[in-house]
Amino acid sequence: MNCAVPQTTPQPVWIAVNTHPNREQSAECNLRHQGYAVYMPVIKKQIRHARRVSEVLRPLFPGYLFVRLNDTQTRWRPILSTIGVRSVVCTRDVPCILPAPFIDDLRAREKDGVIARSASAPQIGETVRVGRGAFDGLAGKIVDLSENDRLVVLMDFLNRPVRVKISSDLLSAI
To answer: Which CATH architecture has domain 127-173?
Structure first.
């Protein structure tokens, strides 16, 4: 009778790393040089400056990127001394493990290395109505897409046009 315990192969895990402000790319580069597998999802964003509009790539999660470790026993503390890294997202001095489907879903949404906005996402020029909150019932036109699922909506408020940043989950299309 064989009493050997079956050996399970360690599974790679993903952890979240907090970076210094606007240092995501520096941290990514330095972590790759140390041999870590790094994932930083990016989106295209329109920037307006001096009457010029250009598209630039920005992190989907500003201030964060994801690092793959071979297993939960992999040494992760060297990440803390990496240039551009502020901290590792932890609970009681243990890195928080991200569910693998989360990273897989992000990668599935990529097109040419950029996270694509969903087809049902609000578009600039679309008229929307606020469903709840301080502006409940007011309608406006989307004039810009901001970070963190926030939209800039132009509303007629107190007889003048007002630009309001509002969460997209508070809006419904008219």
So the answer is: Roll (2.30)
